[in-house]
Amino acid sequence: MKKVPFLSKFCRYLSHFFKTLLNFVTMRRLLTRVINRVLLSEPFTHAMGFEAEIHSHARRKLVVGLGNPGMDDTRHNVGMAVLGELAARLGVADRWRGDKHVSGEVIVSEVQHTRVVLLRPRLLMNINGVSVAKAAGKYGIKPEDVLLVHDELDKPLGKIAIKHGGSARGHNGVRSCVDCLQTDVMLRLRVGIGRPTGKTAVDRYVLGRFSSEEKKVLDSVLVQSVDLLLSQLSQQDSQSPSSSPAGGRQAAGKREGRERSASPAEDSAAAQS
Predict the structure, then answer these.
(1) Is residue 52 pLDDT above 80, yes or no?
(2) Which is catalytic among the residues 57, 76, 150, 164?
(3) Which of 48, 94, 120, 207 has a Cα-to-Cα distance from 201 of 20 to 30 A?
(4) What local confidence, expressed as pLDDT, does residue 181 receive?
(5) Where do the H-state alpha helices sit in the chain?
């Protein structure tokens, strides 16, 4: 007879726990959204038009390495590592400069008649979108011409994939970009980092550094990722994802089925095709 009250009390506690957890996650997302809005308010963005360096008839692209400032070599910053490798491949690695108007570091370069802006946000991952939106506004780049490079828990290290728009899939940096640009049409290069094993918490895992064995795989991943980026940036307008009609969340959702995942070797072949 005593088991019934105990079970009832346990169910109430469990229900309360999940409600509290849900409220915490909801409040955290709401707070992040408010911070995004405050940082993108008029006092912060008023100066964005003064130094528009590449407003011309040339094609323009924005490539962003999502991550946290000052946390190089961590799994969560693999997007920035890819961007660093891209800058080196383009021969412009020494041209990073701080830009307070976009809250980040930028390089303006060119890839086959396409003017390309490389961006490393100086804001925390959860509000990277503020920096992306400011840079897109300053340089006159449409959301569909923004390419986000970021870590992906759901893919093992050694796998990369191009994703055409769609949901953030739980990635806070991508979610911030969707919120600040008010659309989800951005192209993404998802770089697999795998999930933690054992009892290691996800937060601790993604903020941790790659092991020596992982670094051996990472070297190849960086090369193949840059190959794929250059392939995307070199595409003609008729072939480029940016030529697809920008339709916000609904259109991006329809395109999500075109996502393609491959090992680094397969990506290399795709980049050369």
Answers:
(1) no
(2) 76
(3) 120
(4) 95
(5) 3-39, 42-45, 78-89, 128-139, 172-181, 202-206, 212-234, 248-255, 264-272
